[in-house]
Specification:
Strand order of the largest sheet: 3-6-2-1-9-11-12-10
Distance between the termini: 42 Å
Shape: globular
Helix content: 25-40%
Number of domains: 2
Number of strands: 20
CATH superfamily of the largest domain: Acetylglutamate kinase-like
């Protein structure tokens, strides 16, 4: 029997009616002759509500206790789902992340999966049971502490389990029909993609496309696990994320991200080792830096700007101010009014002129570009946050990515 891993997001299990609908789908998959492992998120907005509760009693809650609190949401979902499946005459058993053998590092709130020892999962499958696993969580084997994987962590749980179990596919069920050329809430004629490569999906996810967590795509690419993104509310075919060998379209999609802030350290001495003295403590504080720009040196000094997640901006400012004082640099500015728009496509690396077209389109719309970052298949621009939706539509139109009218 082939193993199918299915993941259901919070909107898919938001209430008893939706849990029942998902249970019907799971039972149908099991009765079709598959072994089934299901990963569930917390119901609806449970995680956000738990975060609000935590901040109501402590403005700066400890990471350990936050993880203890937040993992409760997925535990509720997994138990209810197992009950719903058993009500349909199919044996099911639920496991927390630690019970499923998901071992992580010790970083509370943003732990990385190190290993999966899925003995209990495989034993339950061999006993003919559907296995329900709480997403978003694991355990640090050294300190025996519960950990969480960060926003979207249930995606990573699902694909990592699929890799460990050598599943035939990992199905990610969500509230959209698949991966689109842009956010359909912003671009009315955004087109659903039938297929997209791991490489392109990884860039889209890292650039703000919320349909998949980037770490889940990394697992899929590393272990060659096909990921099928589908809606839990219909039977439409969705989007396949997998290895592709055929020549790719020039551009696959436009993504945007409002979650970052720009930090600028002014009047930094322009000498070897200065950048290292700034970015090393940021790395040691587990602050991810996305884009970096250093201005042209003038009179032996320069400005360095970089982007970080908004929820890390205060910590990044404190570190940057300490380093600036040590270097006798100037002031540190934090700008939270920015956003990032990115164009992604595997075909752009063999088609010159894509970057020029991006900048021409944005310039024609009067949208100023503050920072630029590129890879072989991505061009990202930092712009003002209040122009980002317009920028997405402008680029989507410029590269003719929309549905062709019938």
């Amino acid at each position: 029997m082939s193993i199918v891993v299915q993941k259901y997001g919070g909107t898919s299990v938001a209430d008893p009616e939706r849990i029942s609908r998902v249970a019907d789908r799971i039972v149908a998959t099991r009765r079709a002759g598959n072994d089934v492992v299901v990963v569930v998120s917390a119901m609806g907005h449970t995680t956000d509500e738990l975060i609000e509760l935590a901040h109501a009693v402590n403005p700066d809650p400890p990471g350990r206790e936050m993880d203890m609190l937040l993992t409760a949401g997925e535990r509720i979902s997994m138990a209810l789902m197992a009950m719903a499946i058993q009500a349909r005459g199919v044996e099911a058993v639920s496991f927390t992340g630690s019970q499923a053998g998901i071992l992580t590092d010790a970083s509370h709130g943003s732990a990385k999966i190190q290993e999966i020892r899925g003995t209990r999962v495989t034993d339950a499958l061999q006993a003919g049971k559907v296995v329900i696993v709480a997403g978003f969580q694991g355990v640090d084997p050294q300190g025996k502490e519960v950990t969480t994987l960060g926003r979207g962590g249930s995606d990573a749980t699902a694909v990592a389990l699929a890799a460990a179990l050598k599943a035939s596919v990992c199905e990610i069920y969500t509230d959209v029909d698949g991966v689109f050329t842009a956010d359909p809430r912003i671009v009315g004629n955004a087109r659903k993609l039938d297929e997209i490569s791991f490489e392109e999906m990884l860039e889209l996810a890292a650039s703000g496309a919320g349909v998949l967590m980037s770490r889940s795509v990394e697992f899929g690419r590393r272990f060659n696990i096909p990921i099928h993104v589908r809606s839990s509310f219909n039977d439409n075919p969705g989007t396949w994320v997998k290895e592709q060998t055929m020549e790719q379209a020039i551009i696959s999609g436009v993504a945007h991200d409002r979650s970052e802030a720009k930090v600028t350290v002014r009047h930094v001495p322009d000498r070897p080792g200065v950048a290292a003295s700034l970015f090393t403590p940021l790395a040691e504080a587990d602050i991810d830096v996305d884009m970096i720009v250093q201005n042209v040196s003038s009179d032996g000094h320069t400005d360095i700007s970089f982007t970080v997640a908004k929820d890390a901006a205060d910590r990044a400012r404190a570190i940057a101010e300490k380093v600036a004082a040590e270097l006798e640099a100037g002031e540190v500015d934090v700008d939270e009014g920015i956003a990032k728009v990115s164009l992604v496509g595997a075909g752009m690396k063999s088609h010159p002129g894509v970057a020029a077209k991006v900048f021409q389109a944005l310039a024609a719309a009067g949208i100023n570009v503050e920072m630029i970052s590129t890879s072989t298949i991505r061009i990202s621009c930092v712009i003002r946050e209040d122009r980002v939706e317009e920028a997405v539509r402008v680029l989507h139109d410029a590269f003719e990515l929309g549905e062709v009218p019938a």
